[in-house]
Amino acid sequence: MKIKILKNKKADSWFLAVIGLLLIFGLFVLSSASFIAGEKKFNDPAYYLKEQFLKGVLIGIAGFFVALSFPLGLLKKYSVFFLVFSIGLLTLVFMPQLGLSHSGSARWLQIGPLNFQPSEILKLSFLIYLASWLESRQKDLKKLNSGFLPFVIIISVIGILLLMQPNLGTFAIIAFSGSIVYFTAGGRISHLILVALIGIVTFSFFIFLKPYAAQRFHVFLNAERDPSGAGYQINQALSSIGIGGLAGIGINKTLSSAYLPEPIGDSIFAVLGEKMGLIGISFSLFLYLLFAILGYRIAMRSHDNFSKFLAVGITSWILIQSFINIAAISGLIPLTGVPLPFMSYGSSGLVINLAGAGIIANISKYV
After folding, report:
1. Which end is more exposed in the chain, N or C (fewer Cβ atoms within 10 Å of the end residue's Cβ)?
2. What transmembrane ranges does the database entry give (predicted)?
């Protein structure tokens, strides 16, 4: 009888409303950011908007409802399969016949007519596996050999594959969100400090080995030294945000953002700032904050640890990715190429964002 009552409950209506607003507002921002690029490249100002709607929104909404109704018990049962499958897809990007490169990064996989980023799938599958693993190991988390070391090994294996692409931004998202879930489950503070030290060493080592990463770090420290070269994107982004002022220049007008690299990708927040000003920026931040508050509230009200850890992980992932994108394009951290959830162009990211949101909504039915 208890199971029947729980199944009859509805998903959190406030959370559903926030997802709807993020999706609608994201399409609105993308339409404004993409019309010039669409006109220049495809002679169709609505090209990118239509592509995002057909390949991202429609498939993503289908994924949302599948995740909303998928039995959480089966999600936990097959968590290892999901992780192994996504890691397998990730390794395929290094095969010349299947992998696609863009700007020196091997992040895309093409299988027949499908073109997607396996790293986006990995974000979600890793958190599903981690929630299941932590629930089964909760009593051992404070132990070094049976708790902390296996966690570090899992993160390291994923990190090696991502840094080979290279994809430091996605690795940072997985490492940070995974660490939050780990310590939510009861990990030691001393282990948290050790994770932070490992992260600093890994970041420093990566910068030392990868010239492009070192360049991005130097640009972050001295963007004004080469405003028309290495520092062009961040200077142009800050100019776009500054031009917007309080209310923006208008969604149909373009000034500085017309010369902005990746205006529909990781730079879309700067376009938002130029066209909608501080009001648009504040509204987008409010939506992400509301998503985080509601997501964590659902997690804390969950009746089982798997649901709790999974909701914490997915919420943290979206929040951290949003922060990294906004902070980078605002000059607070080095540029990473991380897209803005629900807003940047890219069907892979949007579909997985909506699937993750669907899982949180699914969990909310049982709180």
Report:
1. N
2. 53-71, 78-96, 116-134, 146-162, 168-185, 192-213, 276-297, 309-333, 345-363
Contact in structure between 321 and 170 (CB atoms under 8 Å): no
pTM: 0.92
Residue ranges per structural domain of the chain? 8-364
Q: What sign results for the dihedral spanned by CA atoms 197, 202, 205, 206?
A: negative
Give the residue from 326, 316, 329 showing the smallest Cα distance to 126.
316
CA 352 to chain centre: 9
The size of the chain, in residues, is 367
Q: Which two tokens stand for residue 84?
A: 């192994």
Distance CA 104, CA 101 (A): 6
Tell me, what's the pLDDT at 1? 33
Q: Residue 116: in which H helix or E strand, if any?
A: strand 114-116
Residue 101's DSSP bridge partners are 106
With a CB cutoff of 8 Å and minimum separation 6, the contacts of 143 are none
pLDDT tens digits, 144-184: 787 888 999 999 999 989 988 888 889 999 999 999 999 99
Rounded to 10°, the helix 79-92/149-164 angle is 30
Q: What sign for the dihedral angle of Cα 295, 296, 302, 308?
A: positive
- Say yes or no to pLDDT of 297 above 70: yes
C-beta of residue 129 within 8 angstroms of C-beta of residue 143: no
Q: Residue 119 has what pLDDT? A: 92
Annotate 5-25 with three-state secondary structure. Answer: HHHCCCCCHHHHHHHHHHHHH
Whether 37 has a pLDDT exceeding 50, the answer reads yes
Say if residues 335 and 319 touch (Cβ distance below 8 Å). no
pLDDT digits (tens, 9 = 90+) for 104-160: 566 778 877 778 899 999 999 999 999 999 998 887 787 878 788 899 999 999 998
